What does this fold into?
Amino acid sequence: MQLVFSYGLFFLSCLSFQSNLQAQSAILGRFTAGAVQEKVLLDWQIQAGRTCDGIGIYRGTDSVDMSLIHYIPGVCGDLSRPVSYLYLDSFPHTNQVSYYRLELGPRIFSAPVSLSLVDLQGQPWQFRPHPVAETARFYFAGSAENENRLLLYDMKGSKRLEISFFGNEASWSTLEFENGLYVFILYDHRNKPLQQGRMLVRH
It folds into this structure.
């Protein structure tokens, strides 16, 4: 493996890219983006028997207009086995959706993947906005690979919400919640508590 870090997949509408997208689907086994400690890890695999001449990595704030941020020269892939690649983007866009795309040889582009990376400003978790009015958006620092579970209680100790989710963020409606404070506990996939705090609802 070569180190060269709510996930969306969008297809380009431009007709000139359609045949290239079909070509890249036969080349790539996977292409994902994930958050790792306020950075973005790109992970992709070139299928066995497929090669390309260099890999360009592009980034942008929409799914069409992107700029080259890194280039891997030389022949990529292998005729006898699949080859996996990683690229760590240490300076990603924050507090907005970032889009990434691969160029697998001249003018052969992958479909873009997207990721929303939130700058928590050194805090372990945040609600945005806070106080919460109609929709609670919860962000936390930690691994995005495994399933997490969040429980929410009112100040009387009654459980008002339980949700499971993957990634570093979750959202839910608070329209049926009364104004006031609520306590949350966040658990990891091993049922180990990760974070605990309060959410204020103010309609």
